[in-house]
Structures
1.
Amino acid sequence: FQHYYITNNLSSAMLRLVAVCTLLTLVLSKAVEDVDSFAQGAGYEECEEWTDCSNQVDGDDLDSYQAEQYRFDHGQAEQSGPGCPKPKPLKEICAKYECPPIEKVDVSGCGFEARKVLSANWTVTSLDITSDMRTGRKDAFWRLFKYISGANDQGAKIAMTVPVITKWYMDDDYEVVGAEMAFYIPSAFQANPPAPTDDQVRVESWDDAITYDRAYGGNSKNPEIYKKEFKKLYKALTNENITPYTKMSLTAGYTRPGWGRQRREMMLVDAGSM
């Protein structure tokens, strides 16, 4: 009888363990399915011709693109196609950091998302493009970061928001002639934004604007990837007979470089918003 009791209890315990393991497998499988969906990460359906980025990035650029993704996202199903790092979902990012108010605009097409960015105050500084671009970006970022850290007339500590926006102004030959970096001022300070104490920093009120956004993941800083993503965005808009403003483009960084899954965006503004 004792042998039967022990054996029966062991069998019951094993059955419970199998049931728990099965449930965990189903949950994890669902999580992997969620991560595997490119549309869920990017926020739009990718165009079929770009689902395999092995034919979008050439030679050593592709090796670097894949290696960077593997380094920071190993073990996660981050691919939309061979070698294509998937962007971190915007919803997940904006649950942690405040993002500017936007409304999704329903348009047809693939390879981009259309948004209405609502009017708001931003803190802005010019970016020096005459010297090393990396140094110019770093200097601009720290000027803005000092502003939110207390370098303002209220001495206020302002929460970091995302994304970090960089506006690139271009001439008729599409050469960059100027640039600015901007942080969105969080809702707690929108009604009365503190004035910067640095004369290189200013507060600007931006009107409503329709933007077209294309996201990508990975940690590669190769400028060729930025160019290729902008070309794909422009082509996707052309396919839908959408005319963007061509004298300005924007890049947006939502995540800390080198820390987990990434999201960067290329953005063009609708010509009617300018």
Note: The longest helix spans residues 2-36.
2.
Amino acid sequence: MPTVGILRDPLFEALGRSFTENEFQELCFDFGIELDDVEEEEDKGTKTRGGAEGGAVEMVVSYKIEVPANRYDILCLEGMRRALRVFTGLDTPPVYRLTSPASLLSITVELPTGAIRPYVLCAVLRDCTFGTRAYNSFLDLQDRLHHNIARRRTLVAIGTHDLDTLTPPFRYTARPPADIHFTPLAQTREFTAEELFAFYNDSANNSPLKKFLPILEGSCRHLPLASRLCSSTSSR
């Protein structure tokens, strides 16, 4: 079963009480998960991923919890908090509704993608505001989905973008790496896809994305999502 790290104190705060380790073990057992380990680690939620290093380091307690492989909804603090609050009767199960906005967005899938990854799925989440901790948790969840259900990005690659900075309509296309220009997450300058590949491949940059480069290596075309006012928003 996958093991996820969940911060203890925010979880206890959401549940409205503190637990001894044995009490929390019992709650996990009743719910169908298992507390595997308790660790003290650096609080990644105090600075944005990819931000500048330095400053005081705050240590936090993290629960390493084994969860069923099909429970993608509890791979992060927010999902675990919601599930345990419903299980303990503090909340009722959420009801989600799909709504139609006044004007629909469109994305055009262009023919060159057919030989590489022919499918794209998009969704818009509106009225979302992220604090630093929630933003980092969101990215961690995305990484965990990449790791398991997406088979280390070989089946699916997920990209998240700020719609306020983009202008529809959108295009899903395939271009030579040298023709793709964008500013990636946590960087301050624009790269071509060729330059970014070399940047991530350089061990001196210590990028966690280096392990995914073989997926693209040797490909004469990469897959950007392009909006009307920018050359591309991502290389996936």
Note: The longest helix spans residues 132-147.
